[in-house]
Amino acid sequence: MVTIRRERKADVAPREALLDVSYGPIRFSKTSERLREGRRPGLSFVAASGRRLVGTVRLWDVSAGPGRPALLLGPLAVEPAQRRRGIGAALMRHALRAAARRGHRAVLLVGDAAYYGRFGFAAERTGGLWLPGLGDRSRLLGRELVPGALDGVRGAIRAPRKPVRTPLLDAVAGLRRPPEPRAA
Ligand SMILES: CC(C)(COP(=O)(O)OP(=O)(O)OC[C@H]1O[C@@H](n2cnc3c(N)ncnc32)[C@H](O)[C@@H]1OP(=O)(O)O)[C@@H](O)C(=O)NCCC(=O)NCCS
């Protein structure tokens, strides 16, 4: 049975091995990687079959233009032998639910609309945004977690200079953001 859970420290090495197999060395030259390098993700999940890691997805705090916090999803990968069994979809749905529960308002990613469209991602939502270095704009996709969250967004997608506070956390007086998992 495959379960989806938070990434742990012991998952880092098998996650990196899975990403190597899934994307090859070009994964480090992707434009979205420029927003991730040297940072910890806001959310990170794995799919596990017993003790074996068979899938990974992470989400990173970014700004979708000035003053518009969002998450950047990726990379998503499933072990080749385990594909087409719904594990990718389970990771996506789990990640989107978790992001919404934490008060995030929108998720962006760079990927194939043919795959991500089924989870509500569309290039139409990102028309006013750009990702420095990204050639094919049709791969820049957005999905609102709160209706209207991407209305009027305009500008470059960037890594925030300081940790992003989500509206939900802001609403809870005195509650501090929990420490990031050390594994990620
Ligand atoms: C994309 C990926 C995560 C999907 O994982 P998965 O567990 O196989 O996903 P699911 O079982 O939920 O869905 C599989 C379906 O998505 C389709 N699919 C996979 N990649 C696709 C893509 N790039 N474009 C369109 N459809 C795609 C499969 O053909 C399959 O279709 P079917 O249901 O009609 O058979 C996995 O194929 C993978 O790790 N690929 C390599 C990394 C990668 O390319 N990731 C980003 C994609 S832009």
Describe this structure in words.
The chain has 184 residues and is of the alpha+beta class. The protein has a single domain, classed as Gcn5-related N-acetyltransferase (GNAT) (Aminopeptidase, 3-Layer(aba) Sandwich). It is built from four helices and nine strands. It has helices at residues 12-23, 87-101, 113-116, 167-171; strands at residues 2-6, 43-49, 52-64, 69-73, 77-78, 106-110, 129-130, 140-144, 155-158. Strands 1, 2, 3, 4, 5, 6, 7, 8 and 9 form a nine-stranded mixed β-sheet that branches. Strand 2 (43-49) and strand 3 form a beta hairpin. The longest helix is centred in the middle third of the chain and has 15 residues, at 87-101. It is globular. The model is unreliable at 175-184 (pLDDT under 50). Bound molecules: coenzyme A (COA). Coenzyme A (COA) is lined by residues 22-23, 76-78, 83-89, 111-112, 114-115.
